[in-house]
Amino acid sequence: MTDREILVDKRRDNYGTLRVTENREGYRFLYFGEQTEQSCVFITDPAWLEYDYTRAMLLGTFWCGREADMTLLGLGGGALANCLVRHFAPHTVSAVELRGEVLAMAREWLGLSDDPQLQVSIGCAEKHVAAAPASCDLLFVDLYMEGGLSRLQLQAEFFRHCQQALRPGGVLVINQWQMGDTGLPYAAPLLRDLFGDDYLQVQVEEGNIILFIPAAGDPPLTLDRSVMTDWAAALEPALGYALKPYINDLCRARDNPGPL
User: Fold this and answer.
1) Which residues pair with residue 203 across a beta bridge?
2) Distance from C-alpha of 179 to C-alpha of 259, rounded to nearest angstrom
3) Mean pLDDT estimate for the chain
4) What is the residue-wise DSSP string for 1-69?
5) Which of 177, 195, 194 is nearest to 186 (CA)?
6) Which of 16, 40, 202, 205 would give a disulfide with 50, using CB separation of 3.0 to 4.6 Å?
7) Which residues contact 142 (CB under 8 A, 6 or more apart)?
8) Cβ(200)–Cβ(185) under 8 Å?
């Protein structure tokens, strides 16, 4: 928290301390512990995505289209869920959040949507995907704790279950952290063993690397920048920001360009 932020709420659960702060510009922040800024919400427009990595994750919707069943592993402040419900015409958006107090704070302080298309359950992401084969068209994995990347994001069996949770034509979107200054995701060797080197990835300035992986047995995702740019341009007036920079930086895992 900076000296420009005021404390709105502070709670404690079995996993540590949670705080919501607000700054003068009308942004609210969810912190895990004292230093880990987990989420940012513009309170007058809770569907606005402030972070580059969440904007980049939206590219997953390109391959799935409308009326998709979307699942988020990790709710955080709820901005991504809000954005998907408002702008991408899903059939359903289901979020699985480990911490009940995170959901409570998102509802009370962070403008979590009450749209009936959005359903949030409290539980373990690992158990959820293991019990839900072929259950969704788009699966977002955004699992972080106070100390950084969740242990699940370093486990092969978890990622296998994530891919198996997709229906044919589905897409797995993973928010990983960069390994040093290599331009590689933290779990790069494990991910390549599981998914090969044809999956798509994009680096963002915050240090995250977003991965886009097709359902098991599906061909590699197409990378037609011209078509994607037209798609992004149509979304820009509603979103209020451009997705084109992330499209420009998309590459196959085998073509990793190195650090930004």
Assistant:
1) 209
2) 10
3) 94
4) --TTEEEEEEEEETTEEEEEEEETTSEEEEEETTTEEEEEEETT-TT---SHHHHHHTTHHHHH-SS-E
5) 177
6) 40
7) 57, 72, 73, 74, 76, 80, 175
8) no
